[in-house]
Amino acid sequence: MKQYLNLMEKILTEGELRNNRTGIDTISVFGLQAKYDLQQGFPLVTTKKVFFKGVVHELLWFLAGDTNIQYLVKNNVRIWNEWAFERYKKTDFYHGESQLEYIEKIKNDDQFAAQFGDLGPIYGHQWRNSNGVDQLKEVIAGIKNNPNSRRLIVDCWNPQEISEMALPPCHTFFQFYVSNNGQTLNLQLYQRSADMFLGVPFNIASYSLLLQLVAQECGLEAGTFVHTIGDGHIYVNHLDQVKLQLTRPPYPLSKITIKPFASIFDVKFEDIELVDYQSHPLIKGMVAV
Ligand SMILES: Nc1nc(=O)c2c([nH]1)NC[C@@H]1CN(c3ccc(C(=O)N[C@@H](CCC(=O)O)C(=O)O)cc3)CN21
Ligand SMILES: O=c1ccn([C@H]2C[C@H](O)[C@@H](COP(=O)(O)O)O2)c(=O)[nH]1
Predict the structure, then answer these.
(1) What is the DSSP letter of 254?
(2) What ipTM goes with this model?
């Protein structure tokens, strides 16, 4: 996982201090790339403990086309809570409840969740129903039937719907590429904005898992995940955490096993197993909203 640490090192040395809409400044570099060869192991960051259960639940939630936080909340994944709550606060129904009270209601009251738990047409919606197009299903059919295609793309940047989304997509656009005489599947992501300390370990794991899932469905081996980043940044309130991480030697990589399945849309949480994950302890950090 040197690649990930190298990007953070580069931002610390070359980055420019900038302000942004969150009110917490960042140190930022424009244009970064890292490549992770999945044959070398699963690139789950080892220099801090990553909440892998959250990665899996979030990915299954995207794959299901779901955009309502109720599924995540019921599975104790809190990473989208702030954005759903911010949205709820803007409605006429908000009467000063705390975020905790709001989340309890999402968990226990299906009708309330249906009405106020949605994040708008974010990832799950764009992947599975972009104005009626199931982009993911089509791209998988493309990999199987036309592996040399240069159009194996899923695009979440839907300009007409961005104003309805709780947050415009950060991992915005991805492309598959079949190499090695039709044997190996590769994936490249374009991420327009990347919170290197909190978001990126999730994003690397999520897209590497997606690559492994799609490869397995297509009978291919998972090759390289290419992570291309626009604005790669470290929030100034994460600087101590990042410096601590950079002092820690990475451990050998983990592996993922996935029970046999016919379609990635049938895969369940229990089917995915993380094997031999060894990591340094968790490092906490506040998320900028
Ligand atoms: N500023 C910012 N950074 C992000 O990474 C981010 C956003 N905003 N907005 C949308 C989503 C939500 N994401 C998040 C939000 C929170 C955590 C987070 O707090 N992670 C902690 C604890 C996870 C837990 O155990 O619940 C971590 O240590 O990784 C991670 C990703 C990624 N995205
Ligand atoms: O998957 C994700 C989602 C979000 N982020 C980060 C990147 C930025 O720090 C914020 C989004 O703010 P914008 O002003 O919309 O760029 O969230 C991430 O790293 N990964």
Answers:
(1) B
(2) 0.98
